[in-house]
Amino acid sequence: MYYVVYNPEYWKRSKHQPFEVYKLIDGQYQLQAGEPFWMPEIGLGIGRATSWSGGLKREVLYWYDEQGDRYFTPEELAEQERQKAEQERHRAENAEQQLEALFAKLKASGIDTDTL
Question: What pTM was estimated for this model as a whole?
Fold first, then answer.
């Protein structure tokens, strides 16, 4: 069993760190080291990262995989997919422009592109 304390603003008052993880060992919670902190019993790590939300930069807790890579939020995944689609659209437009330029060069050279 774990007990996570996240107190980013008032931690100095309580003389604790802003992020602490305790594990129940032999009936007592003991402070654990490392961030993100890996919890093998549930196959997840937990730690802090900086996030932008509503134009504001803030520190928040995130889940991590065993390699220490942060899992993306649904909003971040949607944004990644939107960016991929936009890049693919740009690639397709660029390929179409290159093809049109090639046909124009062929026509300028006297080649009938309608018979190709």
Answer: 0.67
User: How many helices and strands, by DSSP H and E, does the chain display?
Assistant: 2, 6
The per-residue pLDDT for range 34-62, each reduced to its tens digit, is 999 999 999 999 999 998 877 888 899 99
SS3 35: coil
Spatial separation of the C-alpha atoms in residues 4 and 42, rounded to whole Å: 14
Spatial distance between the Cα atoms of 20 and 9, rounded to a whole number of angstroms: 14
- Do 22 and 38 touch, CB atoms closer than 8 A? no
CB count within 10 Å of CB 45 equals 23
Confidence check: pLDDT of 95 > 90? no
Q: Round the average pLDDT of the chain to a whole number and report it.
A: 89
Rounded distance between C-alpha atoms, residue 78 and residue 85, angstroms = 11
Beta bridge partners of 61: 48
In the sheet that holds 56-64, the strands lie side by side as: 37-39, 44-53, 56-64
pLDDT over threshold 70, residue 11: no
